[in-house]
Description:
Elements: H1 26-41, H2 55-69, H3 73-76, H4 81-89, H5 97-118, H6 120-141, H7 153-166, E1 171-176, E2 182-187, H8 188-205, H9 214-232
Antiparallel strand pairs: 1-2
Amino acid sequence: MTDGWASGRRRWPGRTRAAAAPGGAPVTYGLIVLCGAVFLLGPVSGLNPSYGRSADVLLAARAGYFERWGVIPGELLDGSARAALTPLTALFVHGSWLHLLGNLLFLYVFGVMAEIRMGRAGFLLFYLGCGYLATVVHALAHAGSGQTLVGASGAISGVLGAFLYLFPRARVTSLFPFLFFLPLRLPARFVLVFWFVLQWLAAREAGDGPGVAYLAHVAGFAAGFLCAWGRYRGGVRVKTPATATEGESQP
Length: 251
């Protein structure tokens, strides 16, 4: 989804360069490591020999793995404790290398500053809450679907929404396919609003079949923005043109 944390001298109101150092966001880095470890140890990566080597065996193992840890919308409201926990477990399961790396790149870029602003415990609760809510909203909208939903996209979309409110003028370097992947450095508010509109339009066209859970992206982003607005509307927002973050805008 996006790429890395820019190096060099970084400042914004009320924060020092030391606060923005990588050690200042252990929850973000911990989530990245945990998602990566879960993926590598699971059957989707193809690197764990305990799941077998043949294509048929791996496909069966992956299907069972997703059914165990992912969200099945048609089963979410059955009242069982296991089903109620799957919106949390699904946040750490990904369906492919591209799915994993895209999500973690976005989390790496936007999560660091959001965590520093919110605090470690607050950011973790925020991340899990947005992810849970986004997944449930998508599941309720597709209640009859038997397709399994996995991935951290809903939670990370919440981080993007909070980032838009907290750091609207921070700049990100974005690649736009329709401009031949020309890198453009733009304020976060332009990039993130553009991304949100794309997700909204895609969600309106999406069906119940397999594919990207665009509605979860929309719900997570809205939840993250509203949460940041409710929590920090009386505080100080970063309105100077900060340059602390850069990345690619396309998930």
